[in-house]
Amino acid sequence: MSLALVTPASAAPSPDALIAEVYGGGGNSGATLTQDFVELANRGSAPVSLAGWSVQYLPAGASPASQWQVTPLTGAVGPGGRYLVAGAKGAGGTVALPAPDATGTTALSATGGTVALVATSTALTCKTAADCAADTRVRDLVGYGTATVVREGTPTGNLTNTTSAARPSLTDTDDNAADFTVGAPTPVNAGGQGPGDEEPEPEPGDKRIRDIQGTTRVSPLTGAKVAGVPGVVTATRATGDRGFWVQDTAPDADPRTSEGVFVYTADVAPTVTPGDSVLVGGTIAEYRPGGDTAGNANLTLTEITNATVTVLSQGNALPAPVVLAPPDGFLPTAGGGSIEALDLVPATYGQDYYESLEGMYVQVDDARVVGPTNSFGESWITTKPTQNPTARGGTNYLGYDQPNSGRIKVKAGSAAPQVSNVGDVWRGATVGNVEYTNFGGYTLATKSVGTYASGGITPEKTDAARSYELSVATYNVENLAATNDQAKFDRLAAAVVKNLSSPDVVVLEEIQDNNGATDDGTVAADATFTKFVDAIVAAGGPRYEWRQIDPSNKADGGEPGGNIRVAFLFNPARVSFVDRAGGDATTPVSVVKQNGRAALSASPGRIDPANPAWNASRKPLAGQFTFRGRTVFVVANHFNSKGGDQSLHGRYQEPVRSSEVQRAAQATALRGFVDQVKAVDRGANVVLAGDINDFQFSPVIATLTAGGSVVDLISTLPPAERYSYVFDGNSQTLDHILISANINRYRYDVVHVNAEFADQASDHDPQVVKLRPSTGHAQVDRLVFLLEDLLERLPRP
After folding, report:
1. How far is the C-alpha of 695 from the C-alpha of 663, rounded, in Å?
2. Are 231 and 251 in contact (CB under 8 A)?
3. Percent of the chain as helix, strand, coil, to the nearest 5
4. Three-state DSSP state, 767
5. DSSP 498
6. Which residues of the chain have pLDDT under 70?
7. Run of H or E including 781
8. Strands in 528-645 per DSSP E
9. Quick check: bond before 604 cis, omega within 30?
10. pLDDT score of 315
11. pLDDT at position 473, please?
């Protein structure tokens, strides 16, 4: 429906919007109606917008000091329709006006005055009929009763407390006396209601929230329109995805059907408040975060959209929040297909349990944080604090069949949780509503948060290597480039010196070229290394040297233009690097025999760089080191990321781990290199370190450790300590140090300095092994280690 554009005029009769009736005796002695009114009408064939217009009143005997009193208008008056403007109430009368379309505070005289319909809300200044006729903003003018100064033609007949001036046939001759008749007042509003006509009490429709939610993850009413859905508002959200949650206070007995739903109000902040009893109408929709495409594995959030809301009452008690208590199971399987059509089994599967509470008002008592607050203000908590706990308060991911059903993401609803680390606790009740969001799935939108209590974790420190131990660390420094702020270098350097105790060798992942993400063909990273090494010295550490190979431009994946690579830092005062020319971005390193022992054809050298397994991924870098006369081969690794894998919480179950295919090929290539070394020298010391981007229980690690010739050190720790990374509230392992099985004297430590903290220098924790390299002969090892032990105990001069 379009609104007609009206050109204001006053000298000519109005073709459409005009004043239909004026009454000023409301609430006076003898009056029946309790309130004054002005009724408008539209005799045209198109709606007339009243936005920015007003009805104005001037007393009958207008003096120079008299002011026009303004009542602003909104909306429109339809063709042939009416529009009721209420004025001031009096103390008398017994009958209320029908619901007015606009309300002002103007008290009209019962016997005479002037009323104008004006195409502005600015007060008029005219005080004579001629002046008002010349004002083009005046759409219609009625002088009634005793008005003698401002009127059209002759004023209407005299009025009383019980009579009004009405225009029965909507005739406009610009003579008020001719156009209006005096009689009993007959106010009518835009809905056609007159005095005493009461709007029917709103009644619930035939659908309840449980009918909308249904027994699966997708509403059986998707796309349908509903009306009069009853419930009580439990919480509102005025920013972001605006809307409010409403919950039925008379639930059914079916545990599969949620009694709550989110009402989406788009760009408009909700006008309801918690405790409002409402009837909601609108269209049922399933919102899939990230887009409704076949490749998007996210589940959906059931919503009422394009909503109309009727508030029945306010200040009602909220339903008691459900205390979250999911079962140990996580999700059903659909053989890799979608689970959305499966009936929910909330007593068996934790994600089904959360879905059965979608939109509902829930509570967690003494919520323990298992995923630190991120840059979006989101944290992860557990509702099952005894489920696979880590030693520092997290929840450990120990197998594909143990995804930890107690985890749930937390984001701010109308209350924001305090920034928290793993192990912190929100004492008392944390209350809010369950929804499904991008990047994490089922989420608790908080309405109130328990009292923050620190879990007390602090960054860990490992002890220094003994003189006879070679210490090798791995650290993913998260896209480190010379263009980063000095503060990042300083924090990473401090961790190397103070937390890792200045390891002899540091395997680095995610070193970028000198200008970082700038995509201009730069591949050199000398400025990045120099800045990092200088920061380590400034932190009190040794002056490390570095070895690395520049990748071919944009061939190794990662941030476009960044040219990330792996590299070695080493302390030349403790360990020697065997430099052997020939290594570059495309030349493969090989294993050769020298004096009956294994050696590298190039050091540093890349392992099988032309193998398709390394397409758009970092190539492993092998280096040959000498420590106390013994050779150690260290390989720096950064396998293909897990990007592209379907999520644990998504609609496709079991989720496809598509990225694993490339890592499996990479593991095969890396294991092939280890086998080459061992084929030449069974007693060779091999250390594989870096970000393998997979779990200790994964097929990738199984490939590397097959046959027992290589040991994955994270698997030697107690289960509660097997993690170096936290994702979606799961403490898990992506970083690994693996050593050849002949190295049987070692001390290994994951040093937790980043992943559990909201304030991180990197999203990975470093780890370090302090090992005693083998001589290649078991009997010689025993003698050498005994001698080293004795020398270590001798007093220092």
Report:
1. 12
2. no
3. 15, 30, 55
4. strand
5. I
6. 1-12, 198-199, 777, 779-781, 787, 791, 793, 796-797
7. helix 778-793
8. 545-547, 565-570, 576-577, 591-594, 597-600, 605-606, 621-627, 630-638
9. yes
10. 95
11. 99
